[in-house]
């Protein structure tokens, strides 16, 4: 009994099944080992300070989850209560960096049209406008500005909040051993400017990495990939340049060989020319002997010489004597007409004849 050999279709089907299984295993590993860790690492605790309560909210990539809602307490009670909550304690064990958010009612928003200028100038101008429009003195407020350029003008958005309210919330967090990495405002996606608000600088950096780390890593991977591709391109370009240089060098060598061959051919022709000239009959000598051999009343219209045979055409008063006169010359032999004689109006006849040239001896 023979065992059938697997066909190409069977091998492809088996490979497809193995590949699908491998992809499922890889996806599961990614979800368990990477995706969950990235999601957990991007999780942090936020304190929402309202007028009568403090809400503890867990924030991660899946959204927001309200954990507890506490009455406004002093620092010691807030820290002890937060540490006693299992869900909050788990977050605080991972990081002591927290965010603080204030309700929309506590924030003053102003939109100002100002001439385009630097950020420092716009902030100073916004401070003047704030002093003019707000019943509270600017030194009792935290405020920041964001400007959108509109040609010669700038649309400036100003946000201000009472210093006492912010300082109290930050002091409560510090008294509980927490570090404020971000200050947020309700219904506003833009965090408070760290240069204008009392945030902890190192916590701010960690928060930046927490929120933007994936983007930074992705950008770094893209830059690394671009660098690798650029390096490969430069390497390929370098190899292409080297090959091109080799090709140019080969072309130069071929051109040199061609010139050397041409020079050798010219030199050979120069060397052989005297011997060839010495062996071949001189045309002038042949023509002179033909002129001597022709009878009177004969003139030539064409003369040619090739490979020891002369060919002449012309008119003669006595063409019948041409063959005898040519054969009597010691230089020629085998004279014969190539075409019948043709009469002309002056009584002469046109002839066409050939003969052999014996040698090129000079007379």
Short description:
The chain has 363 residues and is an alpha+beta fold. The chain is built from eight helices and 13 strands.
Describe the protein in words.
This protein has 363 residues and is an alpha+beta fold. The chain folds into three domains: 158 residues, Nucleotidyltransferase, domain 5 (2-Layer Sandwich); 67 residues; 75 residues, 2-Layer Sandwich (Gyrase A, domain 2), CATH 3.30.1360. Helices cover 49% and strands 27% of the residues. It has eight helices and 13 strands. Strands 3-2-1-4-8 form a five-stranded mixed sheet. Strands 9, 10, 11, 12 and 13 form a five-stranded antiparallel sheet that branches. A hairpin with a 2-residue loop joins strand 2 and strand 3. It is rod-shaped. About 2% of the residues have low confidence.
Spatial gap, N to C terminus: 106 Å
What's the Cα radius of gyration? 55 Å
Mean pLDDT: 79
CATH topology of the largest domain: Nucleotidyltransferase, domain 5
Order of helices and strands: HEEEHHEEHEEHEHHEEHEEE
Q: Uncertain segments of ≥5 residues (pLDDT<50)? A: 34-40
Strand content: 25-35%
Biggest sheet record = 5 strands, mixed
Q: Which structural class do you get from the secondary structure elements?
A: alpha+beta
Q: From the 3D coordinates, which CATH architecture of the largest domain would you assign?
A: 2-Layer Sandwich
* Neighbour order of strands in the largest sheet: 3-2-1-4-8
Number of strands: 13
**Total separate domains:** 3
CATH class descriptor of the largest domain: Alpha Beta
- Measured as a percent range, the helix fraction is 40-55%
Cα shape: rod-shaped
What kind of oligomer do you see? Answer: single chain
Structure annotation, total helices: 8
